[in-house]
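pasting for ref
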Amino acid sequence: MTKTQTVLRTALIAGASLVAMTGAAHAQTAAQTPEQQQARIEALEAQLQALSGQIADLKAATAASLKDVRTAQAATVVSIAGGKPTIASGDGAFSANIHAVMQLDAAQYYQDKPLPASVTNGRDLNSGTNFRRARLGVDGKVFKNFDYSVLLDFGGAGTDGSGTLQEAWLQYNYAPFKVKVGAFAPNMGLADVASTNGSLFPERPSSSELSRGLAGADKRIGLQVQTVGERYLISGAVTGAKAGDAATNDEQLGYLGRVAFIPFKGYDWLVHIGANASKIVTPAQATVGGPYNVTVSDRPELRVDGSQLISSGAIDSTGARHYGVELAAQKKNFFIEGEYFDITLDRRNPAAGVTDPKFKGWYVEGSWVLTGEARKYSATNFAFDAPAVDKRFDPKKGQWGAWELAARYSVADLNYHERATLAADRVRGGEQKISSVGLNWFPNPVTKFSLDYLDVSVDRLDAAGLQAGQDYQVVNLRSQYAF
């Protein structure tokens, strides 16, 4: 019991006793002599004086306690929980978290030799290493209801970067709504919004990259409004160019949105469904009077070599759109998810007989955590993250972290009327199919190693109708540290 509580209790008991004694005094007054009445009055006055002193002590103790509370609120708290350095005010209204990500890939490509002369793109894929992500940033909270993040990235695709602004945003939280503005990756799909630190494979499925690249993707400047409930998420955003893009005469303008639900859920299982869509209403125009080009392209789910083996090429368009559907399920340490995407470009001033190209893609992936942990389902963005690590790596205790087997099959088809007699109607972007298997090891919550095998098949015709695609295999080892 605290000092304040002790004083308060004593005062209350004394007050109650005083009231009881006063009532009894009135009842007995008639039966007492004047001397007895005077003695009783003096006793009551003494108790009243003692009670007044206790009340004064109570005020002093309360004032001291309030002072202690205010001092604690103003104090700065420094911690490094989970490997992440954090500075925060005592009342939690302000905080700054330093975070970093290191993802180093080392890959060996296995290609047929010699390749046909018609294969001009990716004839000699680069076996080697690449810092896919090398990020350093700070995020936190200001005035309780505002979140912020600033993140720089020095990694790259095939070669390390010189440092670019990955994200810089401010978010206002007014439950259940969140309003975000700045440069960030808008919420636009199951694979899109999942953290790359906990992903099953080194890269997102190509079909997800193709769709998110229209009006979303990393570094996109925009305004997003999102609301999240226990079993639903609704998000919408208006977006423009990406941070770091060259200036244009007309900057791109787009819209995108996502809805996700958990229709069924149990103690150790759940089912996820969702849908997403985006629309470019004004493509960027790079030169005065020039085309409004839209390009749909991606690398084959690994960035050690930066070659893009499938691409629609630049298509002069009045706009573009996509829609996608999501489905996922989890039961204890088993997990599976998949998405389907449909993409359409609206040609600008097409010639007679030339139609709007349509592309599609899909993937399915899943995992089995051998050590029994379950992948975490984020109630913030409705996507799956890395599994918890119940027994962190410690050989002395016979603990080896979390181990996970993963598999994926993905298809991205950027061919449209590729054999049409009218050349202007053809889009020979290529069809890419990738089968992947991997083993992920999480020694602790901030460290990850993954060994992956990818079997890639690209079917693409060149302008002369000759095969410009190829089949190859690649083994990749990723080392990661992220906090």
